[in-house]
C-alpha cells in the first residue's frame, strides 16, 4: 500500500511540473516590453486553455497534499 501511494505521489509531482511548464506566464505590468499588442480575440483564445490548466493544477496540488499526508501517517 505504501509503495502504491508513493508511486502516485511521484507521478503527480511529475504531472505538476509538466502542467506548470505548459502554463503561460503573466505578462501584466510589463507594458511595451512584454509586447502588449494582443488583440481581444487572440487574448481570450489562449485564456480558456490557460484557465483549464490552472484548474487542473489546483486539483492535482490538493490530491498531492492529501496523498502526502496519508503517506506520512502510514509510514509512522
UniProtKB/TrEMBL annotation:
Keyword terms: Cell membrane, Membrane, Protein transport, Translocation, Transmembrane, Transmembrane helix, Transport
Transmembrane segments: 55-75
InterPro entries assigned: SecG
Localization per record: Cell membrane
Entry membrane topology: Multi-pass membrane protein
Keyword Transport set for record: yes
Main location: membrane
Organism superkingdom: Bacteria
Protein family membership: Belongs to the SecG family.
Function per UniProt: Involved in protein export. Participates in an early event of protein translocation.
Protein name (database record): Protein-export membrane protein SecG
Protein's organism: Amygdalobacter indicium
Amino acid at each position: 500500500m505504501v509503495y502504491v501511494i508513493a508511486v502516485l505521489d511521484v507521478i503527480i509531482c511529475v504531472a505538476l511540473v509538466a502542467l506548470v511548464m505548459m502554463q503561460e506566464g503573466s505578462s501584466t505590468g510589463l507594458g511595451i516590453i512584454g509586447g502588449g499588442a494582443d488583440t481581444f480575440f487572440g487574448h481570450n483564445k489562449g485564456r480558456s486553455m490557460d484557465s483549464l490548466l490552472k484548474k487542473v493544477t489546483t486539483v492535482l496540488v490538493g490530491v498531492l497534499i492529501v496523498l502526502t499526508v496519508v503517506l506520512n501517517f502510514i509510514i509512522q
